[in-house]
Every structure is written in C-alpha cells, then in structure tokens.
Amino acid sequence: MTTTANHILLIAHAPLAHALRECALHVFADSAQDVSVLDVPPNESPEDTLQAARALLAHSGAERTLVLADVFGATPSNVAHRLVEGSAARLLVGVNLPMLLRAICYRYEPLDEQAARALAGGQQGMLQVAASNAPRNQNSRKEHGQDRDHHQQ
Questions:
Q1: Which residues fall within 8 angstroms of residue 127, CB to CB, at 6 or more apart?
Q2: Radius of gyration of the chain (CA)
Q3: 10 Å Cβ neighbour count for 114?
Q4: What residue ranges in 2-139 does DSSP mark as E strands?
Q5: Helices (H) and strands (E) in the chain, counts
Q6: Exposed, middle or buried: residue 96 (CB in 10 Å: 0-12, 13-18, 19+)?
Q7: 3-class DSSP state for residue 147?
C-alpha cells in the first residue's frame, strides 16, 4: 500500500466533471485535495483542453494519477489519452459515480490496483432493475388507507 494518495483527475464535457466531484465530496469530504476536474466547454479546441489538463496535472504535484474521462472517442477522452501517453498515469473512460467513488476509496493503493478496482466499481454500478424488483424504503399510500393514484391538494 502506498503512503500518499494517488491523484484523480476527471476530464468530461461541462459540467459533468464538476458535478461528479461534488457528488463524490458529499460522500468523501476528506478527498477534496485528491480530486481535480476539467470541465470541457463546447467549442474549446483540443489543444486548449490539453494545455489546461497539463496545467492541472502539474499543479496537483502528484507522482501517480488516475485520469477518468467520460465518453470514449470524444474530446475529453482524446485529450486524456494524449495527457497520459508516455507517463505513469492510468486512464479509464466511461466514468460514472460508482467508478469515481471506488477510485476515491482506493486512492492509497498502488495505481494499477486502484484503476482495476475503479473499473470494476463502474461496471458493477450499472444494473437494469425491474420496477417489481426495485428496493422499497417507503410505505405505499394504499397501506395508509390512501389510494396511490388519488392526489388530494
């Protein structure tokens, strides 16, 4: 296990990177310094985006970085690929909240292990849930003597 945290850099179409970070900080408030974001605005050139990503990476000062991007083949992913080429950083594409949360949970592990766990978390976080199998944590109105379809104002 490593003694310092791996840095996590999110690169995604605006405002997804920022939104994912905010959700993650709701769960892991202590991870703010370990997660940075680059929201890619529409019409920004890939060169400008790459320059901004390099600046964020340099500013983090981290020895090890896990880069998470949103859509394979889109500008954020292409920039992220160029960013990690020839470096010790790892890149995962198709970021979702379960992937990010798993990446944060394992930010003190070796980078390859963190990347594998984050990828598994992202994949395991995607499920098709039938309405009849959905978890229920609230009583239905009918159980309280009210018809669920009747809306009283």
A1: none
A2: 19
A3: 25
A4: 7-13, 35-40, 65-69, 90-93
A5: 5, 4
A6: middle
A7: coil
DSSP state of 106: T
d(Cα 59, Cα 36) in Å, to the nearest integer? 10
Nearest of 83, 92, 85, 86 to residue 111 by alpha carbon: 92
Question: How are the residues of the chain apportioned to helix, strand and coil, as percentages rounded to the nearest 5?
Answer: 50, 15, 40
Q: Cis bond leading into 15, ω under 30°?
A: yes
Instruction: Give whole-number Cα distances, 25 to 102, 104, 133, in Å.
Output: 13, 10, 30
Query: Residue-wise pLDDT tens for the chain (153 aa)?
Result: 558 999 999 999 999 999 999 999 999 999 999 999 999 999 999 999 999 999 999 999 999 999 999 999 999 999 999 999 999 999 999 999 999 999 999 999 999 999 999 999 999 999 999 888 767 665 554 444 444 444 443
Contact 97, 23 (CB under 8 A): yes
